[in-house]
From TrEMBL:
EC number in record: 1.1.1.1
Highest taxon in the source lineage: Bacteria
Protein name stated in the entry: Iron-containing alcohol dehydrogenase
InterPro entries the record matches: ADH_Fe_C, Alcohol_dehydrogenase_Fe
NADP among keywords: no
Keyword Oxidoreductase among record annotations: yes
Record domain Fe-containing alcohol dehydrogenase-like C-terminal: where: 4-156
Gene Ontology molecular function terms on file: alcohol dehydrogenase (NAD+) activity
Pfam families, A to Z: ADH_Fe_C
Keyword line: Oxidoreductase
């Protein structure tokens, strides 16, 4: 396993972080980031991990509003063939993201050790904070607070 002293690994991570920042600067972020931020703030989960926890569910929530765009992502990822129709390809992306999270053992909030009562108590506040961040407004489907609550509920366990 590489350590912090591995110059090649550090260089690759810096390049990846720079490329991600360039992408965010050119396109902004959307729902997954907006609902992820409050998880990190309230439960001290790294932003990347909370994004991973949410990514399949948020994609499934959003995919019907922009199947062509999600299909392009599925094809680029290799989760769908060029010959797959957009809806089928977009659905394959959702499946591929779920598989990837399982393969990488991305925990649910429950698996991470978050108490369900505390989670349920804070999710209404988190939903309001997510909406206030502005990120959900960039999503193909702009959710209501109740829909964000459903997403939080769906990913808990």
């Amino acid at each position: 396993m590489p350590t912090g002293g591995d110059a090649q690994v550090r260089e690759a991570m810096m390049l990846a972080a720079t490329q991600a920042d360039i992408a965010f600067s050119n396109s902004s972020v959307a729902l997954v980031h907006g609902v992820s931020r409050p998880i990190g703030a309230h439960f001290h989960i790294a932003h990347g991990l909370s994004n991973a926890m949410l990514f399949p569910a948020v994609t499934a929530f959003s995919v019907h509003a922009a199947p062509g765009r999600y299909a392009d992502c599925a094809r680029a990822l290799g989760a769908a063939a060029i010959t797959d129709g957009d809806t089928a390809a977009a659905d394959k992306l959702v499946d591929a993201l779920g598989s990837l999270c399982r393969d990488l053992a991305v925990p649910t909030p429950h698996d991470y050790g978050i108490d369900q009562d505390e989670w349920n108590c804070l999710t209404p506040i988190m939903a309001e904070q997510a909406l206030a961040s502005g990120s959900p407004a960039n999503n193909p489907v702009v959710p209501t607070a109740d829909e964000i609550l459903e997403l939080y509920s769906r990913i808990y366990a």
